[in-house]
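Re: that chain you flagged

S.,

Sorry for the slow reply, it's been a week of failed gels. I finally had a moment to sit down with the sequence you sent. For the record, here it is as I used it:
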Amino acid sequence: MMALAFLAGLWTATRRARLVNVHGDVIADVTLWLMVGSIIGARFVYVTTYWKQEFADQPFSEVFMIQHGGLVYYGGLIGASIAGVIYLSWKKLPVWKIADILAPSIALGSVFGRIGCLLNGCCYGRVCSLPWAIHFPADHETHGVGVHPTELYDALLNLILYGLLAWLFQRKKFDGQIFATYLIVYAVFRSIGEFFRGDYPTDHLYAGLTSAQRASVPIFVVGINLALILSRRNRSAKTGKN
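Prediction finished late last night. Pasting the structure tokens below so you have them in one place:
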């Protein structure tokens, strides 16, 4: 499912790049950097978050092996962002213009990623008696009890976000607007979906909030500030030309 998410994201980003005269090879090259950065970031945050529960007694050589899963999305987003900025700055390419090209595809990739979570049985929801509750096999951690299909909730929200960003891309006012909008809206959508999650250990809940909800707060703030800063910079540039 990860490969499908990658291919769908790359294909749509390449088509979007043509609209703003960016060569598809640029998107393909930076995407490879994003993949490496996201895996490193996602695994690093997972390991540091669940160190006591899963890794304290393991040999260090096995800590960063991902064959059995164990990735945190926000860690991946941060890792990919850092890798992307480093690569684009190194190649002297327009960071925010290309970030806007990629942002909708990130949301689309998350759709496939969450479907993969459903098939893998992770990121499951709280107990649910509604008609659309899902039942994992009896040997699953939920023991066959009906739970919220949180993976599908998140997939649907990311699909909506993809449609919104793709629509906004052709109407944007400044470079960086689409990426900033992604950060803002994703943080809100993720926080909504997290209310239905049931897979967090109790010691990872603080004031009833999951770690992802707490992480969504600074991501939301970064998105708002990024939009304000880049919008102000765009207005100043236009004023300077007049």
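What I noticed first: The mean pLDDT is 88.

Talk soon,
D.
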